[in-house]
Design a protein that fits this description.
423 residues; OB fold (Dihydrolipoamide Acetyltransferase, E2P); Chloramphenicol Acetyltransferase; 4-stranded antiparallel beta sheet; globular
Length: 423
């Protein structure tokens, strides 16, 4: 009797998903817990495994189709399939089906990396993983592809009696990686080349949420600056001991998270949200930390961050950032959140106005650290300074509260001992 492989239950905030990649075709052998298909939602990529050992008998949807929760994706029959076994002779060719099965069973390969490896006919031995515990990331596959490049050979295309020099793509592998199947190829018109590529579901969702924030909220931004010398000295003094004790570096973000939580306790409206005509005051502190993933910006959540130590925060950020990099975040890990921190400084941003992450009412923007001449007690000294920005919804947060909230964060960061004393 066949077993139906269905779309998993999706959260209320996720209406549907798109078939991103099939790793099997009808007649292929599949093992229990081996990934059959990747589903791309507007938040994460979901891996759907087989529930039994057997043979894929039917596939009901193709790549690019939209599916909803509980729809049947495929059927698997118990038994043996047409999968070709890998021959013992090292010189014998390995069938594409065998390679696909090998990659699908390898849990150390991220979904995006696995897809790119299959498209470019790469095996696990061809790519060296740089992720945690040697996990293979998409960037590792791209690097492996680059190493197989052939020398560039310019060719010429003639249009309107004009000769246009066009660089030939080095290899089929690079061609596949640079040009998605759904993309329209480069159009040559004179000396101008353009390419049309459809937006991913995640990018579409990001666009929708940004427009929603601008349309539905009265967004204002207030600024301040903070002297990070006290924190830098504290990190320098205890960094080595901290690493030995907790096996993680003491970064800046954990201090900002702690300072934000203390300030949120003093100004609960900043930790609240609007629901219709009601204000919802949250009695917990789930802090979102914006990170750049391979498919765009994502905001994984530090659940109950007020109960975490500095080491706990650093470890959790490291874990979530790693999962964001290889597209393996779960929906629960990016759902919720009462306040967000975004660090544009890692990209060199000097000053910006961060946009709200609905339905949250405020977001803190960090920026790059620059040494500047500052006047302290009547004397000019050079200090490592950072501009801070707080964007907030003026419907729920008054300007006075926003300014005082940001000043509270500044004061806590310039005197970290206050966070320990609760003053």
């Amino acid at each position: 009797m066949s077993t139906e492989i269905k779309v998993p239950i999706l959260p209320e905030s996720v209406a549907d998903a798109v078939i991103a990649s099939w790793y099997k075709k009808p007649g292929d052998t599949v093992r229990r817990d081996e990934v059959l298909v990747d589903l791309e939602t507007d938040k994460v990529i979901l891996e759907v495994p087989s529930m039994i050992d057997g043979v894929v008998s039917k596939i009901y949807f193709q790549q690019g189709d939209v599916v909803t929760a509980e729809q049947v994706l495929a059927e698997v029959e118990p038994g043996n399939g047409a999968e070709t076994s890998i021959q013992s002779d090292d010189s014998a060719p390995v069938s594409p089906t065998s390679k696909l099965a090998e990659l699908s069973r390898d849990a150390s390969i991220s979904p995006s990396a696995r897809k790119l490896m299959l498209e470019n006919n790469l095996s696990s031995a061809d790519v060296t993983g740089s992720g945690k515990s040697g996990r293979v990331l998409k960037e590792d596959v791209v690097q492996a592809i680059k190493q197989t490049k052939q020398p560039k050979q310019p060719i010429e295309k003639r249009s309107d009696d004009k000769t246009v020099a066009v660089e030939k793509i080095e290899s089929p592998a690079v061609a596949k990686q640079q040009t998605p199947e759904s993309a329209r190829g480069p159009q040559v018109a004179g000396s101008k080349i353009e390419q049309r590529v459809p937006m991913t579901r995640l990018r579409l969702r990001i666009a929708e949420r940004l427009l929603q924030a601008q349309h539905d909220a009265a967004i204002l931004t207030t600024f301040n600056e903070v002297n990070l010398k006290p924190i830098m000295e504290l990190r320098s003094r205890y960094q080595e001991q901290f690493i030995k004790e907790h096996d993680v570096k003491l970064g800046f973000m954990s201090f900002f998270v702690k300072a934000a939580i203390d300030a949120l306790k003093k100004f609960p409206a900043v930790n609240a949200s609007i629901d219709g005509s009601d204000i919802v005051y949250h009695g917990f502190f789930d802090i979102g930390v914006a990170v750049s993933g391979t498919n765009g910006l994502v905001v994984p959540i530090l659940k109950d961050a007020d109960l975490m130590s500095l080491a706990d925060i650093e470890n959790e950020i490291l874990r979530l950032a790693g999962k964001a990099k290889d597209n393996s975040l779960s929906i629960d890990e990016i759902t919720g959140g009462t306040f967000t921190i975004s660090n544009g400084g890692v990209f060199g941003s000097m000053l910006s106005t961060p946009i709200l992450n609905p339905p949250q009412s405020a977001i803190l923007g960090m920026h790059t650290i620059k040494e500047r001449a500052m006047v302290v007690d009547g004397e000019i000294v050079v200090l490592p300074m950072m501009y801070l920005a707080l964007s907030y919804d003026h419907r729920i947060i008054d300007g006075r509260e926003a300014v005082q909230f940001l000043v509270a964060i500044r004061d806590l960061l310039e005197d970290p001992s206050r966070m320990l004393l609760g003053v």
